[in-house]
Design brief:
Its main location: membrane. GO terms for molecular function: iron ion binding; oxidoreductase activity. This protein is globular. By secondary structure, the protein is mostly helical. It has one domain. It has helices spanning about 1-15, 20-45, 60-95, 105-130, 135-140, 160-175, 180-195, 215-225, 240-245, 250-269.
Amino acid sequence: MASLIESGWTYLITHFSDFQLACLGSFFLHESVFFLSGLPYIFLERAGWLSKYKIQTKNNTPAAQEKCISRLLLYHFCVNLPVMCFSYPVFKYMGMRSSLPLPSWKVVSTQILFYFILEDFVFYWGHRILHTKWLYKHVHSVHHEYATPFGLTSEYAHPAEILFLGFATIIGPAITGPHLITLWLWMVLRVLETVEAHCGYDFPWSLSKFLPVYGGADFHDYHHRLLYTKSGNYSSTFVHMDWIFGTDKGYRKLKALKSIGDEATHKEN
């Protein structure tokens, strides 16, 4: 497996420059993973399949879904791609490389774990700031246009928010200067995580069922359903920041009441 990955990577660095791989390659990878993981939730919602796992009964209209996709393409090409290109010199200065040898899995896993923890911390505070009255009204309300989220709404946001919260995603790699393959793996995992958190389905095989510290779709869906002043659940990936600062009290209370109701129904049956 390692030799196969090295062979594929050798082909890439032989045929493409560092700039092409870091900018265009990263953009192509992001778009592929994002849309391939997010589009199926649109089809699930329209077809009504797996509806028993859907968190909210309300569905988005096809027009709302299409608006989301068209805006995403605009923002990705006009905001994300330029940011990737302009940030390339910074990453190179901090030590990012694409050459062989590839980093060990120990190094890759350690760096990505660090990125997840740091991103969650920075995102939590940035997200809370966006829920202040003025910033919510003029910036963050765009993301909350979809009270019933689906996978692709994870990146539907005001351009200012894309830059503001995007900082949380890139700060880890920016300060560590990783190998490009580590950066790509981090990007793929982060995209899959945020799409899952916005998917609108609480599946029995969701990671949150097996990893209590992971938030997941049910945790974040609660954030979208409530008014901005009372939402809570500001974290991106984990739940510990909301627990430490008490911004998940409403969610936990709701879960406790639901658990009591489920137990009462079970006893009656």
